[in-house]
From TrEMBL:
Keyword Signal in annotation: yes
Residues in the signal sequence: 1-21
UniProt keyword annotations, A-Z: Signal
Species for this entry: Cerasicoccus arenae
Pfam families hit by this protein: LolA_like
InterPro entries given in the database record: TP_0789-like (IPR033399)
Stated name of the protein: Membrane protein
Location of the Uncharacterized protein TP-0789 domain: 81-263
Length: 283
């Protein structure tokens, strides 16, 4: 499904920001989150990612590592499409999650090869992705039109003073979280930490830490952090997304992002994507 006559456009173009920390102090919650959204705005990205979930006492040799392709593209209507396709281990090969976001509306589909057809994930997007600590809704990019934002007093994350934003879903039934606290770097506007709160709102139930933006250890370019570490504060389990390789602005076939076509994505299609990201033989 790769269109070789085009350049791959599924990437995120980083925009340099000249604002200093004292300028960020003048921005309110919605303005800060719009700045963050700008750091994630790209035409397309193709990323080769490792996912592992474990408990702190789990021996390293017992940790199962999954490999996946994360394919994102900006559509012509201001929305975006996001496909996650599992590669290994064998028992999850072909499992896919497709997200279509347009005009603030989000449609998400889960495809299990054994079932033969995709199933739409309902409102609230309950459940976790492949037994990890990432909920299905955690896989969706921040869509400012779906949230109400309020700036809170600055606080420290990863040893740095960050702007803190309270994010509440504009539709209560659209999220399994009552609210989140998002910690943004006041200069780069990149996420450093997110705390997730349930309905009682007393203590966070999960915490996401993001590390190493623009890391030289990633093969290629990405707007993602190299590491996204989600800790379930109730169970003590930890899930880590690690970007291994990434390419920006490659052209991708629109059919990749159509729910009805998920069962038709072939091994040849996947191999073509692996060639583009130079990951043949890496999975």
């Amino acid at each position: 499904m790769i269109k070789p006559s085009f350049k791959l456009s599924l990437a995120f173009i980083l925009s340099p920001f000249a604002l200093q920390a004292n300028d960020a102090s003048k921005l309110d919650g919605p303005q800060l989150m719009n700045r963050y959204a700008e750091t994630q705005t790209v035409d397309a990205e193709l990323a080769f990612i490792e996912l592992k979930t474990f408990e702190t006492e789990t021996p390293t040799e017992n940790i199962i590592k999954k490999r996946l392709l994360a394919v994102t593209r900006k559509d012509g209507n201001g929305g975006y499409d996001y496909l996650i396709r599992l590669l290994v281990p064998k028992d999850v090969e072909g499992v896919s999650v497709l997200t279509n976001v347009n005009n603030g509306n989000t449609d998400q589909y889960l495809y299990l090869p054994a079932q033969g057809k995709p199933v739409q994930i309902g409102t609230g997007m309950s459940g976790n992705f492949l037994g990890s600590d990432f909920a299905y809704e955690d896989l969706i990019r921040e869509t400012p039109s779906n949230y109400n934002y309020e700036r809170l007093p600055d606080a420290v994350a990863q040893g740095e003073v960050c702007a803190v934003i309270l994010a509440k879903p504009s539709e209560v039934e659209g999220s399994q979280y009552a609210y989140r606290k998002i910690y943004l770097d006041p200069i780069s506007f990149e996420v450093r930490k997110i705390e997730f709160f349930s309905e009682d709102g007393s203590d966070p139930v999960k915490e996401l830490q993001a590390y190493e933006y623009r890391s030289p250890n990633v093969d290629g370019s990405t707007v993602r952090p190299r590491f996204a570490v989600m800790t379930n504060l109730e169970t003590g389990t930890i899930s880590v997304f690690k970007v291994l390789k990434s390419r920006l602005n490659l052209p991708l076939d629109e059919a990749l992002f159509t729910s009805d076509n998920l069962p038709n994505i072939s091994e040849s299609d996947i191999n073509g994507l692996l060639v583009e990201v130079d990951a043949v033989g890496s999975h």
